Amino acid sequence: MTVPNRVTAVLMTALLAGPVAAQGTAEDGVVNFAADFAAAPNQFIRTDGEMDGLNVDMCGAVAEKMGDEIEWTNLAFPGLVPGLQANRFDAICTAIFINPERLQIMNMISYVQWGEGLMVPEGNPAGISCEAEIGTPESYEACFDGLAGMTVSVAAGGTTNTHLVEQSDRMEEAGLDPIDIRAFDSNSETIQAVTAGQADAGYLNDPQAAYFISSSGAPFEMAFTGFAANQLAIATLKDNTELADRILAALEELRADGSYDEIVETWGVAAVPEFVLNPSE
């Protein structure tokens, strides 16, 4: 398979190692992963031009265990699933949640988990808060109600956008003003809209917002976190079960040798209790 938009500047080669046999999926000894590299800390390009992030480490280690070289395709999130369906790359290794619609077209291997939250200016001037409990969606409704009539930025095409629209629709049905949702192509644009004052708040995955606040020192904080806590997946096309099985086996090896725990601890995400191919399918 050819990869026309392959990002040669971010080519990373993994060492040949590990007992998971390399069968070759696109071309022998090479696996092509795609991700949105404007989504720190999941994956991003440092100021020195090098790749960094959770998924660079995780899928780099997976490729190493499979005995493959790894090539990355950098693509904005809304284009990742269509790109996979068009066979532009072999797998997606970005921050993508598992849901029934995606399971219909992709194999999804759970590997870490996190929730969603709201980034607001320091001091939370709008007073957005609630007695939210992770795993209890209705406990977050008061948090979203505090966004009535406010402008909130979000990345287009993702689960965060879907959940924000659902909450806005619920509020409108309850007689509240809807949320003025501004959807952008990437999480970095979502954050930029808040820092530039174009939005009152940004709705993001928790680790992404927390990483921005801690690494930039910008005067922002999280009004709430942990909504819709869910597992993230590495995904292949539905008929590419061979690669999905190899990724799953590689993750098991990373858990066994301690590498997996080191990576999730480094990037501040939660481990999954077990790696599952197509959970809840």
From TrEMBL:
Domain Solute-binding protein family 3/N-terminal, residue spans: 30-271
UniProt keyword Chloroplast present: no
Taxonomic classification = Bacteria, Pseudomonadati, Pseudomonadota, Alphaproteobacteria, Rhodobacterales
User: What is the protein name given in its UniProt record?
Assistant: ABC transporter substrate-binding protein
Recorded superkingdom: Bacteria
Coiled-coil annotation: which residues?
A: none
Q: Which residues form the signal peptide?
A: 1-22
Looking up PANTHER family in the UniProt record yields: ARGININE-BINDING EXTRACELLULAR PROTEIN ARTP, MEMBRANE-BOUND LYTIC MUREIN TRANSGLYCOSYLASE F
Which keywords does UniProt give here?
A: Signal
**SMART domains for the chain:** PBPb
Task: Cite the InterPro entries for this sequence.
Answer: Solute-binding_3/MltF_N
Q: Which organism is it from?
A: Pelagovum pacificum
